[in-house]
Amino acid sequence: MLELTSISKSFADALVLDDLNLTVAPGSRTAIVGPSGSGKTTLLRILAGFETPDAGRIVMQGKTLFDEANFVPAHQRGIGFVPQEGALFPHLNVADNIAWGLEGTRQEKRQRVEALMEMVSLDRQLATHWPHEISGGQQQRVALARALAQRPSLMLLDEPFSALDTGLRAMTRKATADLLADAGVASILVTHDQNEALSFATQVAVMRSGRFTQVGTPFEVYTQPVDEETALFLGDALVLPAQLKDGRALCALGEVLTDDDKATGQGRMMLRPEQLRVTACAPHESEISILDVDFTGHLSTLTLALAGQQAPLILKTVSQPGWNPGTAVRIDITGKARVF
């Protein structure tokens, strides 16, 4: 559906995008996730036609949007764009915001607007409201309806949920993902929120310093990150030095199965918090004890002392009763450690 080949972009002497390659399947949801300044928004603006790359090729549905000899302007690309916070026209009401750019008679526009409002689950009574009279979540739905009004083949979403509170953010994200899937519109979401990327997408592209460090399904990039930095960016992780041999790792927690039977010698391994179960036990049953507990409800951050280890171990895990400084604990591990 969409293919990016060797896309590069510089501003002055700063290389912002460095030889990017990406394929987006029809009807799929891709999330581009990375820290601020990694090049995410620049890439989105290039896809929309707001910026021109220095090199590379962009093809959508067999049509070349950009290469050395071609450049299709933004208004001819058939690509929808939903910016941060919706960016609605303050001087237009909800209906007129959605109808902006639509062609046809007044009756045809009204019918199309009503259909779009129903599609994004907006009450028709909001049609005459002004943007400042509706909630943040409703504003995002209006922006989405306005973008869908043009019947795009691809929808670009530039951190559209960042201004919403946590509960509304999750609900709006889920509704948007379902809506785009039902409409058969491929989408690309740019975000710095790893949870948002993993929840929204069928494909995740992790971006760092203008390059994709890893592209894969949400499960793949979370469970099999290519390096420590990617692992830690995508969620909480425990990374430890280990002695590797025959698919096993000897580390501060003991011997652990790994996902690499061929790795030997000194290396590093990663475990996700859900692979670890920490339970209180009698002092003679374990050489691990709690130094500090930071309780935040469902999760707690434990600072642990390990016999023979000078540095404490910091671990975020599901809260359990009986955790106090000085308590001896046992750590049980499920699954395999990721080897770097």
Topology:
Layout (H helix, E strand, L loop, with lengths): L1 E10 L2 E11 L4 E5 L6 H9 L6 E6 L2 E4 L12 E4 L11 H6 L6 H14 L16 H13 L5 E5 L7 H18 L2 E6 L2 H7 L2 E6 L2 E6 L1 H6 L4 H6 L4 E8 L2 E4 L2 E4 L7 E7 L4 E5 L7 E8 L3 E8 L6 E6 L9 E6 L4 E2 L1
Parallel strand pairs: 3-8, 3-9, 6-7, 7-8
Antiparallel strand pairs: 1-2, 1-4, 4-5, 9-10, 11-12, 11-14, 12-13, 14-20, 15-19, 16-17, 16-19, 17-18
Helix pairs in contact: 3-4, 4-5
Characterization of the model:
This protein is of the alpha+beta class and 340 residues long. The chain folds into 2 domains: 231 residues, P-loop containing nucleotide triphosphate hydrolases (Rossmann fold), CATH 3.40.50; 104 residues, Nucleic acid-binding proteins (OB fold (Dihydrolipoamide Acetyltransferase, E2P), Beta Barrel). It has a 6-stranded mixed beta sheet, sandwiched between helices. Helix 4 packs parallel to helix 5. It starts with a strand and ends with a strand. The mean pLDDT is 93. This is ABC transporter ATP-binding protein.
Q: Into how many domains do the coordinates divide?
A: 2
Please state the CA-atom Rg, rounded to the nearest Å. 24 Å
Strand order of the largest sheet: 6-7-8-3-9-10
The H-and-E topology, N to C, reads as EEEHEEEHHHEHEHEEHHEEEEEEEEEE
User: What proportion of the residues is helical, as a percent range?
Assistant: 10-25%
CA distance, first residue to last residue:
34 Å
Which regions contain 5 or more consecutive residues with pLDDT less than 50? none
Percent of residues in beta strands: 35-45%
Estimated structural class: alpha+beta
Which word captures the global form? globular
Number of contiguous helices: 8
> According to CATH, what is the class of the largest domain?
Alpha Beta
| CATH topology heading of the largest domain | Rossmann fold
Quantity of strands, as a count? 20
The residue-averaged pLDDT reads 93
Main beta sheet: strand number and arrangement?
6 strands, mixed
- Architecture (CATH level 2) name of the largest domain: 3-Layer(aba) Sandwich
Going by CATH, what is the homologous superfamily of the largest domain?
A: P-loop containing nucleotide triphosphate hydrolases
Domain ABC transporter: 2-234
GO biological process, one term: quaternary ammonium group transport
InterPro entries: AAA+_ATPase (IPR003593), ABC_SmlMolc_Importer (IPR050093), ABC_transporter-like_ATP-bd (IPR003439), ABC_transporter-like_CS (IPR017871), ABC_transpr_FbpC (IPR015853), P-loop_NTPase (IPR027417), Transp-assoc_OB_typ2 (IPR013611)
GO cellular component, one term: ATP-binding cassette (ABC) transporter complex
